[in-house]
Amino acid sequence: MFARLRSDIQCILDRDPAARSTWEVVTCYPGLHAIWLHRPAHWCWHNGFKWLGRFISHIARWATGIEIHPGAKIGERVFFDHAMGVVVGETAEIGDGCTIYQGVTLGGTSLYKGEKRHPTLGRDVVVSAGAKVLGGFVVGDGAKIGSNAVVIKPVPAGATAVGIPARIIPSKAGESADVTPQQKKFSAYGITLEDDPLSQAMKGLIDSASGQEHQIALLWQAIEKLSAGAPQADCVPAGAAREECFEAEKLNQLVGK
C-alpha cells in the first residue's frame, strides 16, 4: 500500500515542474486527494456498500472539484493535473500512467444500465484541458486528446485526436508511445513540437535556408575551378578564343581576382 502511495506522489513530482517537495504534493494537490478518496469509494461500491461509495465520492467532489464515480476503474500513476471540473463516469476505465487536465469529461452516450457506456483509456494517455471523450470505446495506449476536443470514436494507440468532432491524426512512428518507455518523454497537455504548425513552418524555413546555403557553396566551388583553368585576361583573343577571354574576365571579377 505504501509503495503505491509513494508511486502516486512520485508521478506528480515527475510530471509537474511546479511540484517542489513531497509535502507540497501531499497537502496541496487535489488530484492526489481525489485518487486517494476514490480507492475506498471504489472498494465500497464493489463490496455491497454502494451508498457509502457514492457518499465518499460526493465528499471527494466537494473537497476537490473532481467527480469520479465509485464504479470507475483507475490504474496506477494516474495524475489529475489542476483537474477542477473533471467528470469520470461509472463504467470509465483509466489506464496506468494517464494524465488528465482540468475540465475533462469521460462521459457516456447511452441510458441503458449495465452496459459499457463510458470510455476506456489505455496506458499513458494524455487528455488535455476541456476535452470530452464520450462513449464506450477505447483510446489506445499513448494516445493524446487535444484541448477542447470532442471525441466520439476510438483513437488508435499513439495517435492524436483534435477538433470538434475530433479527427484522428495517426502516429508518425506507427506505434504506441509506450513501446520504448525508457526513451519516452512526457509532454504537458499532450503538446509536442510535431503538433505545432508554427514550429513546423519555422523548421521548413530553416531547412530551406540551409539547403540554399549548401547550393551556393557548391556554385562557388565550381566557379573557382572554372576560373583556375580559364585563359588569362592578357591573352590575344581571336575568334572563339575571344569569347573564352571575356568569360574568363567575368569569372575573375566574380571571384575577386
Helix count? 6
Instruction: Please name the CATH topology of the largest domain.
Output: UDP N-Acetylglucosamine Acyltransferase, domain 1
User: What is the spatial order of strands in the main beta sheet?
Assistant: 3-6-9-12-14-15
Strand proportion, as a percent range, falls in: 5-15%
For the biggest sheet, the summary is: 6 strands, mixed
Helix/strand structural class: alpha/beta
Helix content: 25-40%
Query: In CATH's first tier, which class of the largest domain applies?
Result: Mainly Beta
Regions with pLDDT < 50 over 5+ consecutive residues? 175-183
Summed up, the domain count is 2
Coarse shape: elongated
| SSE ordering | HHHHEEEEEEEEEEEEEEEHH
CATH architectural arrangement of the largest domain: 3 Solenoid
Count all strands and give the number.
15
In whole angstroms, the N-to-C terminal distance is 81 Å
CATH homologous superfamily grouping of the largest domain: Hexapeptide repeat proteins
What would the average pLDDT be, to the nearest integer?
A: 81
> What's the gyration radius in Å?
31 Å
